[in-house]
Amino acid sequence: MAVITSLVEKRQEKQLRYERKMLRELSLEKLRAKVLEHFSPFYHMYRIFPSVVEEGCIDLAIEAYLLGAHYSRFGYYGEPADSVRQRCAQEEKYLVDTLFDFLCFWGNIEDDIRGESLYYACEQYIGSWWTEGFERGKKRHRLKLH
Hints:
Distance between the termini: 32 Å
Order of helices and strands: HHHHHHH
Number of helices: 7
Helix content: over 70%
Mean pLDDT: 87
Low-confidence stretches: none
Strand content: under 5%
Shape: elongated
Number of strands: 0
Oligomer: single chain
Radius of gyration: 17 Å
């Protein structure tokens, strides 16, 4: 008797293999450096739990990187990055909002001006990781490594 597997399971396995391959190209040092680069003006607020805040930022950076990598196949087939970004605008906004809420929670930010600048920093951070994943994924498609 043959084992019957569903198409959904096969897709999930394929997606997990692809994500593992993409994550091999990331280094923890680069992730930490980008956290400090983007959030250094706000980082002094998180003296109580700096590792918790750093890990949360790294988790969301990985999610944004994988989101960009997932949508990179459209870029490989010739679609511009801006229009590809519009395809996943809702997911990207969710990541930005999640990061902003996370940082506001740990930093007790209630000031409108400081919160607005933190939101823009979150947008830039998630956007830079999305772009990084998009470019690396496009490169992997070009080299037929997907």
